[in-house]
Structure formats: C-alpha cells, structure tokens
Amino acid sequence: SNSSTLKWYAVDNQPWMTLSHDSGQTDLKTITVAINTTALTPGVYNGLITITSPNADNSPQSIAVSYEVWNPIVPVVLVHGMASDSLVWNTMKASLNSDGFSYVWRVALDSCGAASENSYASSPRWLFEGNAAKMAVAVNNKFNALPANIRQRIREYDFVAHGMGGLVTRRYLSTTGLDSWTPVPARSVVMLGTPNDGLGLLGDKIKLYHCAGPASGEQHTRRMLLFNSFYPEVSGVDYFAIWGASGCSTTGSILPGCGGWRKLASRFLDCANDATIPASSAVGQGNGDIDRFTQ
Questions:
Q1: Using CA atoms, how far apart are residues 159 and 93, in angstroms rounded to an integer?
Q2: Predicted confidence (pLDDT) per residue in 234-290, tens digit
Q3: Taking CA 193 as the corner, what is the angle to CA 191 and CA 195, rounded to the nearest 5 degrees?
Q4: Which residues contact 260 (CB under 8 A, 6 or more apart)?
Q5: CA-to-CA distance for 158 and 193, rounded, in angstroms?
Q6: 3-class DSSP state for residue 237?
Q7: In angstroms, rounded to a whole number, what is the distance separating the alpha carbons of residues 291 and 280?
Q8: What count of other Cβ atoms lies within 10 Å of the Cβ of residue 193?
Q9: Strand pairing class (186-192; 290-294)
C-alpha cells in the first residue's frame, strides 16, 4: 500500500451469508461471517468473499467459503417395562429400521427394579434411580460407538418406553445434581401403558406373579405422587401417553390373560397397556404436560 490508512470493502456472493462489516480501515482486522440455514436443504454450499481496497497493490483478494448442511439424526431409544426385557422390541426395531430409522437402540433394564432402588421408601431420590443410571450408561455407550461424522449430526433423541420403562425414562431425563449421569437432550417421550399415577393394588399382583424386586412397590400410587412432585416433565420435551382397552386376547402375552403388549410390538396400538393400566394413570392426572396420544 502507498497509504498509511488502508480503506477496504468486503462483499459476499451468497444470500445465506452475512458479513459483520462490509467496509473498514486498517484498525478493523476481523470480519465475522454468519450463516443462515433456514432455507438450506442438506448439501454442500460454496460462496466467495471478495475484499477490495483502492490503495492496496494486491487488491482484490478472495476468500472461499464452504458450508455443509447435514440431515440431523435422531436416534430412537426403546425402553422395556417391568417383568420384560429388551428382546420385546425385536419386531418394533425391525419395523422402525424398515421405515428409515437407522439408529434404533434397545436399553436393557433390571426388569424388577435395580438393587439400589430398595431404598425408595426412605427417599424419593431412589425411585427408579438404579435403572436410570443403567440407561445412562447404555445410551452413552451406543453414542460413543458411532463414527465421529455420525455423532456430530445427533442433537436430540426420541424415547419409546413401555410400562415401568416410561417412569425410568422420566427419571433419567429429570435428573438432579445428586445423580451420576447427565441425560442426553430429548425431543419426545412416547409412553405405552405407563402408570404415571401409579399401579395401586395392581402392583402387589404383578409382584406376586412376576417380580420380587422393588419395581412394583415403586409404582404404587402413593410413591408416584412423590415421584411426580420430585421429577416433573422436562421443559421443551414432548410427552405422549398411549393406552388401550381391556379384554385383549392376542396370543404371546407377557401378563397373564392378555397379549396386548406383544400385539403392540407388532405395531398395533389398540392394546398398548396389557389391559391393566387405566387411562387416568397413563396420562397422569397430576402431570398436565403429558398429551393424550390415543385412546
């Protein structure tokens, strides 16, 4: 330059780029480039920033800009219920995969409640805590096993949970400073026959036939009142409840006398609660943020 003060001008050639400054002098050395992705579909976008100065011998100068817009990936996390296991999701997982959901993860819980949850009577903190911690490890392991270029496209997750699994999912997401995990960001939680207001006397029957662990006791109405007050729905997450009518007769039952869950696993939603969970508990009368997905 042949001047002590260098005046310059900057211009971009793409509508999705915005420059923080389009002109300046020697003392302004930084231009910030903002990208507006609102109208951009997935793909690679290229642009050019040109800087000119009437007093510079090497004017103009160009800077190439390349920006890639990804299709976001939203994994689906499947969480089984009490007296069950992750294999109950086999058909559902295959169906979701065939529908284009490539990242469908099954979480294996302690089906009758984790040992640490035996302390639930002494403090609400222990309600579903052990299984929530187990869920955190499983989700983190699945995520960390992915290639870096896939991980960076994941910003949120969808959860589909049956029965007790819905309560474990709620506990996992509504964590406290005392817990050992940090939950991933959730977009939605779909609960299938989840007793958000408790099992009541049904808990004793399920314990008698299926579970000797703490899970049935945790789901009693009096415990769920505490649970709902300590672990509310997370703001910004969509919660949905699905439940079904009684009198199911499809074969392959998990609970005595009703095959509703096996039928749901085959993607039918007319018996999503094993004919045991009433609508009032599934939707959670004390939980105004749970939407009635279907009846």
A1: 13
A2: 989 998 887 765 444 333 333 333 333 344 444 333 344 455 676 677 776 544 455
A3: 90
A4: 193, 244, 248, 250, 253, 271, 272, 273, 274, 275
A5: 17
A6: coil
A7: 12
A8: 28
A9: unpaired
